[in-house]
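Researcher: Go.
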Amino acid sequence: MPFFFSALRRAVVFLCCLWPVFLLPSVAGAEVHSEDFQDWRMVCETVDGTEHCRMFQRLSVTQEGKSQALLLASIGFIDDEDGKRLPTLRLTTPLGVILPAGLAVNVDQGKPDDLPFHICLPEGCMTETGLSARGIADMKGGRSMHVTYRVAGLPQPVAIGLSLMGFTAAYEALEKREKGG
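Model: Structure:
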């Protein structure tokens, strides 16, 4: 798969290390900084002198005055097994997805990559995968990232288009902060 790293190796890192960084609410006393880049937002928290940043886009619908998240896409850097920091994409869907079906992800009209779900928590069901240089380049040059998943009880898959407007600026700012800039 040219777009993503091996999902199986990444699952171990995800379960052990990544999901707490992206899921937990801000720690009391943490310094929080956020910046918008068109349709993407970067959030950085500094806890005990260590900064953790991620960029994300959240899509939701409002029905009967209640907001329902459809998809949260976030990108951050995590350590691989050799201690090298790698960009990682995490996708979170609502509960109720058909887990064996996984997700299909593609940029613009590119070939979809199939990703398995890794875990479901009260916040939703998640998958995560490392991003290759080509995957990042595709997103920087693309207009939209398409994510498709199946929900129990719905006859058709849920197909969501994430805007990539502002992706390049957000990713470059994230990368700069990752490098200490």
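Model: Residues 98 and 152 are 6 Å apart (CA to CA).
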